[in-house]
Specification:
This is Dihydrolipoyllysine-residue succinyltransferase component of 2-oxoglutarate dehydrogenase complex, mitochondrial. The protein is of the alpha+beta class. About 25% of the residues lie in helices and about 25% in strands. The chain has 3 domains: about 55 residues, no CATH class; about 80 residues, OB fold (Dihydrolipoamide Acetyltransferase, E2P) (Beta Barrel), CATH 2.40.50.100; about 220 residues, Chloramphenicol acetyltransferase-like domain (Chloramphenicol Acetyltransferase). The chain contains 9 helices and 21 strands.
Length: about 450
């Protein structure tokens, strides 16, 4: 009976070599058999005893395969953007030849609204960067090529530093001469020289020579200026450029007008002081003032739907939105972002606080997706967190109005014919006068004032 000695590992190695040879890559075929030594071998059975021809038996000393196929190099494309975003700028975090682990960020694409991180789909080595740093890309554009290695190899350890040579014997240094002995502290005043009794000779003014004028610097030599000042330039990032462009477009397109009012924050402060601890215990959320203004804005937007509408300049139509999506402005180191709290009309205070907290955390960690900021029918900007007393916000297109909140200050106000000190806040509503009339804007802002000053208005739908 004829037997063929086999090794499972060896079979896999031979299989890889054959496939590689079929692809026309002889070099890789030779690499795939690295560490395998052997030759064809036959074995015979004679009277139930195995007789082996040792000169022709496969022997496997060790097995190590590093076969690399052509499909091991993958091309990573730009992720798809939202409909409102067409392109972005690439900022590379890795270079060609760098080793990356799976899900490690390779580059960051800065769009008009946020930054999108592109991770490595698998562990490997960056083989090529297909877009220059700072280049513009669209969704689906090839970004880089990655050669997969199965696992990110550990970085080679640096060679152990050779022990430092023994320090040379210090040369003898001559001892410094001892300092002179200090003079004894005088105990008596020094003698005053006698004043001469002879008159002092005086000279006429004309005989006194004027002091020499300072020599002027020769021409051509720059005189160093004291306290020289300098300046430096920094290129605007894409988000800042887009913010500037959108605000200028809003200024050029909308007929912006601002109306003001003031809100007595006494009741809402008292409500927060009484219920903040039970609210935190039940919902694990802090009760703030923003949820009251978001809910009051949704209440007023439903009462005045024209403020929630927008003009379609292409078709010359007014688009009424039957839903309320409120953008809440958040300041980040990269610029101002406006994540959207959606369907506010169906939310309670706890739902709003949770949504604001989650969006704020994502904004601070630079993890906001484009979908988090897309849309929005109305915006609230809270400059009061920075101590703002008064201001006129600019509309966030394609919306038609924006509410500006400001800081709370104790001010004397007339209440029932008496002067009382109350915590007061100025609020401002900037609106597009092409669509919203003054009567509707003032009515809208008074609705917000009534709902914040007495939250029972929301419960009674007054």
């Amino acid at each position: 009976m004829l037997l063929l000695w086999r090794s499972r590992c060896l079979g896999r190695a031979l299989g890889r070599s054959v496939r590689t040879l079929r692809q026309g890559n002889c070099t890789l075929a030779r690499r795939s058999l690295s560490g395998v030594a052997g030759s064809q071998g036959l074995a015979y059975i004679d009277n139930r005893k195995l007789v082996v021809n040792s000169s022709s038996v496969f022997t496997v000393r060790y097995f190590r395969t590093t076969a690399v196929h052509r499909d091991d190099v993958v091309t990573v494309n730009t992720p798809a953007f939202a409909e409102s975003v067409t392109e972005g700028d690439v900022r590379w975090e890795k270079a060609v030849g760098d080793t990356v682990a799976e899900d490690e960020v390779v580059c960051e694409i800065e769009t008009d609204k946020t930054s999108v991180q592109v991770p490595a789909p698998a562990a490997g080595v960056i083989e090529a960067l297909l877009v220059p740093d700072g280049g513009k890309v669209e969704g689906g554009t090839p970004l880089f090529k990655l050669r997969k290695t199965g696992a990110a190899p550990a970085k080679a350890k640096t060679a152990a530093a050779s022990p430092p040579p023994p320090p040379a014997a210090p040369e003898p240094v001559a001892a410094a001469p001892p300092p002179p002995a200090a003079a004894p502290i005088p105990t008596t005043m020094p003698p005053v020289p006698p004043v001469s009794a002879q008159p002092i000779d005086s000279k006429p003014v004309s005989a006194v020579k004027p002091a020499a004028a300072p020599v002027a610097a020769p021409p051509g030599e720059a005189v160093p200026s004291k306290g020289a000042r300098s300046e430096h330039r920094v290129k605007m990032n894409r988000m800042r450029q887009r913010i500037a462009q959108r605000l200028k477009e809003a200024q050029n397109t909308c007929a912006m007008l601002t109306t003001f009012n003031e809100i007595d924050m006494s009741n809402i402060r008292e409500m927060r002081a009484v219920h903040k601890d039970p609210f935190l215990k039940k919902h694990n959320l802090k009760l703030g003032f923003m949820s009251a203004f978001v809910k009051a804005s949704a209440f007023a937007l439903q009462d005045q739907p024209i403020v929630n509408a927008v003009i379609d300049d292409t078709t010359k139509e007014i688009v009424y939105r039957d839903y309320v999506d409120i953008s809440v402005a958040v300041a980040t180191p990269r610029g101002l972002v406006v994540p959207v709290v959606r369907n506010v009309e169906n939310m309670n205070f706890a739902d709003i606080e949770r949504a604001i907290y989650e969006l704020g955390e994502k904004a601070r960690k630079n993890e906001l997706a484009i979908e988090d900021m897309d849309g929005g029918t109305f915006t609230i900007s809270n400059g009061g967190v920075f101590g703002s007393l008064f201001g006129t916000p600019i509309i966030n297109p394609p919306q038609s109005a924006i509410l500006g909140m400001h800081a709370i200050f104790d001010r004397p106000v007339a209440v029932g014919g008496k002067i009382e000190v109350r915590p007061m806040m100025y609020v401002a509503l900037t609106y597009d006068h092409r669509l919203i009339d003054g009567r509707e804007a003032v009515t809208f802002l008074r609705k917000i004032k009534a709902a914040v000053e007495d939250p029972r208005v929301l419960l009674l739908d007054l």
